[in-house]
Amino acid sequence: MMAGFAEEEPMDRSGPAAPQTTIFTVMSALAQRHGAVNLGQGFPDESGPDYVIEAAAAAMREGRNQYPPLAGVPELREAIAAHQRHWYGLDPAVEDEIVVTAGATEAIAAAMLAFVRPGDEVVAMEPFYDSYKASVELAGGTIVPWRLEAPGFRPDLERLGGLVTDRTRMLLVNSPHNPTGTVLDRAELEAIARVAAERDLVVVTDEVYEHLVFEGEHLPLAALPGMWERTVSIGSAGKTFSVTGWKIGWATGPAALIDRVKGVKQYLSFASGTPFQYGIAAALASGPEYYEDYLAGYAERRGLLAAGLAELGFAVYEPQGTYFITTSAAPLGYGDGMAFCLDLPERCGVVAIPNQVFYADPSAPRPEVRFTFCKPRAVLEEGLERLRKGLRSG
């Protein structure tokens, strides 16, 4: 229930908002200091299935502890290819259209460094996962926000065309979307595909929450006509199998694009997690009952947390996917979600994340606050009870 991270001084509340690369460390430190229930950060309190853990352990015992091939062990690449065929009808070649990465974050960074040149622009759905802006800027590019507005958090498709300029190199698409939980529908994806084709853009898709869709369906952009040739699709096992610390992700796409991603990756990690790769190969071979139980379990937790937060007075934007819920603290009298979240650990013994850190300008106050339901039911109930008592006493 409590964060177990190294202590550090919390950020100065009188100064500008913390950069999004530090807010999670700050909130973890506050969680530890106040014995808070951490409902902010997206890591489960529970470990993955026993057979997945055992597959990794068996690989260690069998001596599979040295460097794997740059692209990943063949068994995992074969499992990724089978996964893509089974779920989406895609058929990436094991030899040259799949690369295993040190989590989705390395895949994102490698893709930005592979395709973005100094002065290029990357259009990304805002709010966005914290590594996007950093990775684009590491490559010398500029991120151009394509904002999803509350309460619906649907993309403004007419606005997308106006954001694309002669300097645009890439569209970065995240669905299911972190932090809002939006799942792009077929019409939205087709509109994105048209812009990409008309302007000859590379597309990178972040699909790490692909198996956590409660409403609608997950449809990879690469599965649309004409999109495989220009799309790098990124996946990860950490969220689906509750092994975030293993940092096993992947990118799939046409050989010409994946070759460039591999060309960068060799100078980032080269390769990592050999025994974990065997564990994830076993995980991806899970039968349909695993995915059904996984989704049903999180659907139940989503309902519990959403109902509890609404009862406490938050405006709740129930997500279509992911394991995050975006809320607004404005009905509770807070126009600044950062101030609210910094007060919360001491006041209520609960940690949440202010959504403003997911924006290109994180210094602008916003009332939205993100909670996660990737915790056991007892932890969620404890968090809600603490919020109930703390907010009432305030």
Automatic annotation (TrEMBL):
Family: Belongs to the class-I pyridoxal-phosphate-dependent aminotransferase family.
Record carries keyword Signal: no
GO molecular function terms attached to this record: kynurenine-oxoglutarate transaminase activity; pyridoxal phosphate binding
Name under which the protein is recorded: Aminotransferase class I/II-fold pyridoxal phosphate-dependent enzyme
Record key words, sorted: Aminotransferase, Pyridoxal phosphate, Transferase
Needed co-factor(s): pyridoxal 5'-phosphate
Aminotransferase class I/classII large domain mapped to chain residues: 37-387
Cellular component annotations (GO), alphabetically ordered: cytoplasm
Keyword Disulfide bond in record: no
Native source organism of the sequence: Glycomyces albidus
InterPro entries: Aminotransferase_I/II_large, Kynurenine-oxoglutarate_AT, PyrdxlP-dep_Trfase, PyrdxlP-dep_Trfase_major, PyrdxlP-dep_Trfase_small
